[in-house]
Amino acid sequence: MPTVHVASHPLIRHKLARLRDKTTPPPEFRKLVAEISRGLLFEATKDLRLAQVSVQTPLMETTCERLADRIGLVPVLRAGLGMAEAMLDALPEATVWHLGLYRDHATLKPVTYYNKLPAKPDMDFALVLDPMLATGGSAIAAIDILKKAGTPRIGFAGLIAAPEGVKALRDAHPDVPVTLAALDSHLNEIGYIVPGLGDAGDRQFGTA
Ligand code: PRP
Ligand code: URA
Fold first, then answer.
1. What is the mean pLDDT of residues 106-128?
2. Which of 133, 186, 193, 204 to mutate to test the pocket of ligand 2 (most atoms within 8 A of CB)?
3. CA atoms of 179 and 181, how far apart (whole Å)
4. Where are the domains positioned within the chain?
5. Any long-range contacts for 101-107 (C-beta under 8 Å, 24+ apart)?
6. Is the CB of 102 under 6 A from ligand 2?
7. At residue 2, does pLDDT exceed 70?
8. Pocket test for ligand 1, best of 132, 156, 167 (most atoms within 8 A of CB)
9. In whole numbers, what is the pLDDT of the chain averaged over residues?
């Protein structure tokens, strides 16, 4: 069964402290989201497949490897946008499929309002991006949509998760590996991650 990987790198932990700080303004918050996301990208894509390729170095011809998988980055709007932009810089071969989901404040259930997936995705691996895995409803819904569209392999990358969300995601989609920057204590009574960072969309886009 695929693992839940929580990053332990000191640079990620250092940047998370600034990300969580309520005095960190949106420009710095966005920069931190990007930097942490680039740090998570390598773990989240560690099972990508490679194909052999012949390369002529200044000294000789040698056998190297290139990516063989076609990759889709799937940001969950709004908050996944900052993660997607950063990862696309490092992985320009990827295509980006936007999924618009918001969490109904009363029920905490995800509501889909935008879906830019092609009818038949020609991708080998899709990485769902959402900074916050709270109840897990949004991530589960995004992965449901990708599976229904026939995506062969799927991963999830997030910044901060609650144990409740990780469990729900693992129960619903045990085949999907999860990469996180932090696993927090619990959800509060209104479905926010504690200690968390507040509302990731509002803090990125200054809409609080
Ligand atoms: C936030 C977050 C996730 C969702 C997580 O989005 O970015 O998509 O909540 O909660 P869940 O695990 O309980 O589903 P939100 O609904 O606030 O939308 P926004 O990004 O547009 O602000
Ligand atoms: N969405 C957020 O942006 N933050 C939380 O803590 C939970 C859901």
1. 91
2. 193
3. 7
4. 4-51+65-203
5. 101/76, 101/77, 101/138, 101/141, 101/142, 102/77, 103/134, 103/135, 103/137, 103/138, 103/191
6. no
7. no
8. 132
9. 96
Task: Indicate the CATH number of 4-51+65-203 among 3.30.70.1230, 3.30.70.60, 3.60.110.10, 3.40.50.2020.
Answer: 3.40.50.2020
193 C-alpha to ligand 2 centroid (Å): 6
Residues 32-37, mean pLDDT to the nearest whole number: 98
Cα(192) to centroid(ligand 2), Å: 5
**Which ligand is closest to the CA of 134, given by its number?**
1
Q: Which two tokens stand for residue 108?
A: 């905490």
Model confidence pTM above 0.90: yes
Average pLDDT over residues 63-92: 97
